[in-house]
Amino acid sequence: MPLTRRILSAVAGLALLATACSPAASGDVVTTEASTTSKSPPTTTSTTLPPTTTTMTPLETVGVIGDLPFELAAASQVFLSAVQDTRNDPGGSDPLLIAHHQHLAGELKDEFAGTATVQELETGGSVAVVRFDNEDILLLADEGLGWQVVGADLGSSDTDPWFGESPRRVLVLGSDARPGADAAVHRMDSIHIVTSVPAEGEGTILGWPRDTWISSPFGEMRINALTSSGRGPDAIFDHFTNTWDIPLDGYILTAFSGFEDLVAASVGRLLINLPISIPTQLWWPGFSAGEQTLTPARTLEYARTRKGVRHGDFSRSKHHGVIMLAVLTMLQQGSVEDVPTLLGELVKYTETNLTPTDLIQLGVAAFYMDVGEITNEVLPGRLGRAGGGASVVFLEPEAEDIITDVIEDGVRSN
């Protein structure tokens, strides 16, 4: 090879070697400076920064152990860990539930041991109550997407319980459908809004006279006829929520046979204190005033009685509230761990549009109520004629004030 070509090859080889060993070839960032035509020598400024050290505090988590299914333990752990350290993923937990407990960050113990009561509902979904060894409880529901914590009483940390936004308001309906008939499309014998404020232990049972005369999208009629003509409970529920703008969580509807079966399944014989005596009716004997025990059949007869009773249907509506309070008193002799099983019985004998989340929240909330702080009241009205001469009830002007008072905060101001 001629000398000149050997020199050029050597120079090219050295250039390739230098390129291969350069920072650019090794993937490092290279900073270049633009050339200058100035005759003055370039000024070079060198800045040396101290090394930066970042320390990330490890995430705090809470463990859950005990005699409960893995899925429930996992969901409980997700919620408790999100409370303990807000950097943890809360999963599908309600943001309001997390916010209610945010002041407990860093205050929970490292591990909770608990047991669970679980119930699959015939209407779909499942509910559960987890009780820990420190008496704290969690409410869980599975609506098809896995278990989620939907309520909590972390009372060991001196925190109010949270069972959904308060107050809770439910429309409770009793159909006059006889056994074998469709309860949903018959007239309603019993119409009540039941409210609860669990943190205060207070609430209200507010009765509507069934013959209350109203104007509706279906025409003028008694309020209890909204469900007839095939319209069902959604029609009366929509009237309360849309026409009257009363916020309700949902409705629960039962009929004669369902009511009797539900009483039998939940409390058996009902211990009750009747406020007044009831005269003998055409189909069953009367009732004496005072404390007594009623069979499910006699409880239904008491609920149906209005003839010969002073104030007639107004008194009967109030007696429905008396029954509700007596049932609640007996149920509270048990514990919140009974709630999933009780809800399993409830959905067998009623119709409802309440979700599993609503049901477990409301069911447990009932155990936090002080029966003596629950007002049982029927809206005032006067008898009159309408609709071709039919006997109806016109609500008195003060009824609107009572409704507003109860709906606003769930309690009746006295």
Provide key terms for this protein.
414 residues, single chain, 2 domains, Aminopeptidase, five-stranded mixed β-sheet
Summarize the structure in words:
The model is unreliable at 1-47 (pLDDT under 50). Helix 6 runs antiparallel to helix 7. This protein is of the alpha+beta class. It has 10 helices and 17 strands. The radius of gyration is 34 Å and the shape is elongated. Strand 3 (126-132) and strand 4 (137-142) form a beta hairpin. The protein has a 6-stranded mixed sheet with strand order 14-11-6-7-8-15, sandwiched between helices. The protein has a 5-stranded mixed sheet with strand order 1-2-3-4-5. Strands 9-10 form a two-stranded antiparallel ribbon. The relative contact order is 0.12. Helices cover 30% and strands 24% of the residues. The chain has helices at residues 3-20, 70-84, 95-100, 233-243, 256-266, 296-304, 312-331, 339-349, 356-365, 398-409, and strands at residues 63-67, 111-120, 126-132, 137-142, 147-153, 168-175, 188-197, 202-207, 213-216, 219-222, 250-254, 270-274, 290-294, 351-352, 374-378, 381-386, 390-395. It starts with a helix and ends in a 5-residue tail after the last helix. The protein has 2 domains: 63-157, no CATH class; 168-409, Aminopeptidase (3-Layer(aba) Sandwich).
